[in-house]
Input
Amino acid sequence: MASKKAGGSTKNGRDSNPKYLGVKRYGGQFVQKGQIIVRQRGTRIHPGWGVAMGSDFTIYATVDGVVKFHERKGRKYVSVIPE
Output
């Protein structure tokens, strides 16, 4: 009589879906109003001039222009310089 004891369950075997975070437009690139520049969790990069931040901390352009990343008082900022 062949028999097999019941196997124990494992606590592994699951994974979360990718969130596609990060910088979408880099310094020197031209962006149009409404285009996403950075997708992030929390304010790793703060909004500067010509950009706004959404409720999920996404930074997007409010004017047409060129992306500029800069640092001030130990904080990273992103701005859009109109052209």
Observations:
- The chain has one domain: 22-82.
